[in-house]
Amino acid sequence: MKKSSRLTSVARRHKDAEHTMLHIKNLEAGYGKVQVLHGISMDVPKGKVVTLIGSNGAGKTTTMRAISGMIKPTAGEISLHGKRVDGLESYAIAKQGLAHSPEGRRVFATMTVTDNLILGAFPRLTGSRPKGDVPGDLERAMELFPRLKERRNQLAGTLSGGEQQMLAMARAVMLNPEIVLLDEPSMGLAPILVEEVFRIIGDLKSRGVTMLLVEQFAAAALKVADYGYVLENGRIVVHGEASKLRDDPAVKAAYLGGGH
Q: What is the value of pTM for the model shown?
């Protein structure tokens, strides 16, 4: 796919016009001797939803893992509200206000729904993050995710796949983060639960939550996002306002043909 100069000009206006919460510059990362990311650059403005789309193996999850400290970048910069965080451990990045809802959910199966959510607020309870109103935020999370409210005393491991995904998202929000990374939140879910997940993402967006979204359903991701980046073979090949990407012939042909 050739880079679109029209979309690039939009990108410059996007970058200049809004405060950047997350800034990534020339990021390189991989696993052992295998390099996956080849100098990608992205910006996520405060209060916006940015989506990263691409085929399987393009490097989307690697990007998320590098941002949150799950793997160490080999080159480049990652800044969170102006502070460099590349190379820091995951817990240190979380203290700076970055919450990661990873691919595969990874809930604490032997703990209750409520205890999983409270663990999401752990940095707030230990003084690493501003404490705020943790009990109030817990109740608000239950209201935002009504399925979790019904199962608040149930062990997380007994939840359905969709409910575990909602728990992972709610746990990330309990950090009261500056930004949330959502990695494939609809993976493996029935269509009705996919709709519910995107409803919740839209609700979070309306509340001003800053999000970076990796999602297999590119059309749905571009519908809820403000801005998008397309990743191919570890490189950003095109980016622009989400509405423009939805109408870009090359993007439509490569990623939106399934009608999702």
A: 0.85
